[in-house]
Each structure stands twice: as structure tokens, then as C-alpha cells.
Amino acid sequence: MFDTIKTKYRRNPVFHAVLLSGFALISAVLLIIGNQLTAESIELRRIEDLQFSLGQVIPADLHDNDLWSDTRTLKDADGTGTTYHLARRGGEVTAAAFEQTTAGYSGLIRLLIGVDREGKILGVRVLAHTETPGLGDKIDHAKNDWILGFDDKSLTDPTEAGWKVKKDGGVFDQFSGATITPRAVVKAIHQGLILFASQKDRLLAPGKEGTS
Amino acid sequence: MSDSYSHIALEGIWTNNIVFTQLLALCPLMAVTDTATNGLGMGIATTAVLAASGATVSIWRHFITQEIRIPALVLIIATLVTLVEMGMNAWMHQMYKVLGLFIPLIVTNCAILGRAETFASRNWLLPAFADGLFMGMGFTIALVSLGAVREILGSGTLFANASYLLGSHFSFLEMTIVPDYKGFLLFVLPPGGFIVLGFLIAGRRIFDDFLFRVLPEPRNDAEDEPEPAGAAQS
Question: Please, how many CA atoms are within 13 Å of residue A139, restricted to the half-sphere of its CB?
């Protein structure tokens, strides 16, 4: 059946165009269905990962509230918003955690940074990345302790010149075989601290808990 | 092309091995084989896609005409890889966190396109599926052996982080071969991969030569492979 059609029309380019369009259509439909089926679960997994990482970047003794639901979104100078998860103890804000996104070696790296009231880093974790396995993926705490090197650092320790990888004259290690990834992470954390410092006053002002 | 499954298995794992004979898929090979564990992860993910693409291409083979075969095959493989990635992210999230990084790299694996074109588009469903499975196994063996040599020479360990990929039952695999090893960067980087691959291929040739001399005259049809000429396919 199809073979006779194929023999009859094989010299006609339109026939092949239609066939290929058919494949494209089927692929598109499959991808849409796949996306519909998985979107909700993927979003849930993303939230679970974020909740787990929140517990990692803000020590438990700093807060008695629910980090996940207590958020405040502030507008930056350029109009984009940053959402902070606030840690409170006895109503007073003790620490905050926020996401920073940066371009790594291949694709985006999403970081979660936890800082105390003075802007000192409590912890940093990578939420998602697509860096090369075995090289750039050492930024992931599950594979390497490198990311712990940012603990207790702030804008004054090291000073601005030190917020670079060692290869560029800074204080942070790069990994053998991957410089671009750690360079991007160091820069993103530094920018995150600058952003936090600029919004600190508005952020740490007491206010009621919940989403605002 | 023989229909017998043992022939397909032998071809995939040894005589027509994707890496050691066809010298395909060098890009993902060099990128991930700095440790044996990463090689294993990439091998498992690739095997799944090879088997699935073999089966899918075989089902649709009558509709894939000679003229549109390249774009059609690329489309099928890319769709499969994307579906596998979304499904793993949603329902096998722990595994996705480990293998997820390898999945987009599978699209760059020309061996999958090669098998779809030379085998799956000419064969019935089951042999096509089996071919993907055994080619994937051969690829996994190559990845793990290359990864193991590079890991021992480069970092002094073997199967580091294996429990992270396979679960805590497999933590016995994690070994420190050379204690207090300072590391040998060359073998962690791709040039070391090429050097080790060269020695592995040479070793394989010597082994095949040895078999050729030791084994009695092969039966009529079996060992009629000529010495592999290096590039069996482009």
C-alpha cells in the first residue's frame, strides 16, 4: 500500500516535504503531551529541591518561622524583582535567602544564597545547572565541597579585588579543567551580595510575616 | 546483515564496538570519562536512548524515505531524548539529578544516528531493539574501561561517587587505588582520554591478533571479519 504510493511519488519533492512535515507534526504533538504530563511534577520537584536547599543555607537555630512561605519581593533599580525568603526569630528578621541566576559554561546556573543581617554568607547551594559532568559539576555540593568555601565570606572579606578565582588574582579556587564555571559562580555570588546590600534596609525592616 | 541475535550481540559488544571499532561518539566519550562512574552513567542513559530510537525508527522505517532520512532521524532522536529527560525529571528525580547532565549530551552522539541509519531503518522491530541494546552495552563497556583507566591515573581512585549513582548498596565499589595521590591533570582532561583510548584500541588489536592465531581455523561463516580497518563508517 504505502510502498506503491512511495514508488509513484518518489520523484515529487512535495511528497517528501509532506512526509517530513508529518514527522515534525507527530514529534511536536508528542512533545506537547510529554510537557503537559510532566510539567506539574517537575514544578513540584523544583519546589522540593528549593525547600531542601533553604534548610541548607540558613541554619535552623536562626529562625522559628516557615522559610518557604515567608517571602518578600523587592524591585531592583532596573525593574526586575528579587524574591527573598526571610528567616525570623521572635518576629525579627535574622537572615534572608535569595536566588541568583548566571550563565555558566553551558546553560544557566541557579544559585541559592543565604546571608545574615550584616550581609555575611551563611551558605550557598546550586539549585540547578547543566555544566559538564566531571568538570564543571563540582559546584554541586553533592559532588564536591567547593561551594562551602563561600561560607562566612562578605563584601568586605575578601575585598572587591579578591572576589575572583585564583587564576584571576582572587581568593577562590578554580577546578582543574574548568575555569569558566567557578568564575561565573564567584561573580554571581558577588553580585548577589551587592544586590542584597543595596536592598538590605528595606528588606530587614520588621513587617508582618507572609508573602509581600 | 545476519538476523541471529547472538551475532547482533557479538557485533555490538565486541567486533563492531561503537568506540573501539567504529571510532564514533568521541565527543561525549572524551567529555565524561574522567571517572568510571560518570562513564557508567552516560553508558546507561545512552543505551536507553539507543534501544528506544532503534525500535521507533524500525516501526516507522517504511515512511522514512531515502531523501528525508537524515532530518527525520534527527527529529526522532531529539524528540526521544527530550521526552526521556522530561520523564526522568518528573518521576525519577533522584536519578535525574545524577544522570540529568548526561542526557542533553546524548543528542551529540553520532553513533545513535549511525545505528538508526545502518541498522534500524532496515530491520524488523525486535532485531532493531536488540541492536540498540547491545551497541549501548558495548558503548558502556568502552566508557567504563576508559573512565576507570583515566580515573586511576588521573585521580588515584576508582568508581568515586558510585553510591550516588547506583544507591548506597554500591558504596563498596568506591576505592582509593593510590592513597595521597597528587593527581595527574593530563589524564583528567580530554588529551589524556585520547592517549588512553589509543592504548586501549592497540590492546584490543593485539588481543584480536592473538585470538586469530590461537583459535583453530574458524567455521565457514563465523570469524570471517577482516582486520578492522579503523573507520568502518564515516
Answer: 31
Q: pTM for the complete prediction? A: 0.74
- Would the pLDDT of B223 be above 60? no
A3/B62 CB distance under 8 A: yes
Between A19, A37, A132, which is nearest B68 by CB? A19
Amino acid at B95: M
Tell me the residue type at B166: L
SS3 B232: coil
Task: Write down the domain spans for chain A.
Answer: 53-204
pLDDT per position as a tens digit, A179-193 = 899 999 999 999 999
- Average pLDDT of chain B, as a whole number: 83
Contact A119, A128 (CB under 8 A): no
Strands lying side by side in the sheet with A81-89: A71-75, A81-89, A92-103, A108-116, A121-128
All residues of chain A having their beta carbon less than 8 Å from the beta carbon of residue B53 are none
Q: How far apart are the first and last CA of chain A?
A: 65
Q: Is the per-residue pLDDT at A212 higher than 70?
A: no
B90 touches chain A (CB under 8 A): yes
* Chain B residues within 8 A of A2 when measuring between CB atoms: 62-63
- pLDDT tens digits, one per residue of A3-34: 777 777 778 888 889 999 999 999 999 999 99
Q: How far is CA B140 from CA A124, B51, B132, B190, in A?
A: 35, 13, 12, 18
Task: Give the pLDDT score at B216.
Answer: 67
What does the pLDDT read at residue A122?
Answer: 94
Question: What pLDDT is stored for residue B218 in this prediction?
Answer: 55
Residue type, position A97, single letter:
A
Q: For residue A71, how far is the Cα from the chain centroid?
A: 17
* Residue B223 DSSP class: T
Q: Which three cell numbers stand for residue A189?
A: 555570588
Which residues of chain B have a CB within 8 Å of the CB of A134?
31-32, 34-35, 38, 188
Helices (H) and strands (E) in chain B, counts: 11, 2
pLDDT tens for residues A131-155? 876 778 889 888 788 999 999 999 9
In angstroms, the CA A11 to CA B106 distance is 34
CB B193 within 8 A of CB B176: no
